[in-house]
Amino acid sequence: MNAPVKLTEVAVGVILDDRGQVLFAQRPAGKPYAGWWEFPGGKIEAGETVQQALFRELEEELGIRIRDCQPWITLQHVYPHATVRLQFCKVRGFDGTPHGREGQAYLWADPQRPVVDPILPAAIRMLPWLSLPEVLRLSAAAVLGVDEWLARLAATPRAMLVLREPDLSETELNRVAAAASAWRRATGSTVLVSSRHLHADWVGEFDGMQLTERDLLGASVRPAPHQWVGASVHSCAGIEHAAQLGLDFAVLGAVNATASHPGGAGMGWTLFSQLAAHAPLPVYALGGLAFADLDRARAAGGQGVALLRGAW
Question: For the chain, what are the domain ranges?
Answer without folding.
Answer: 7-130, 135-311
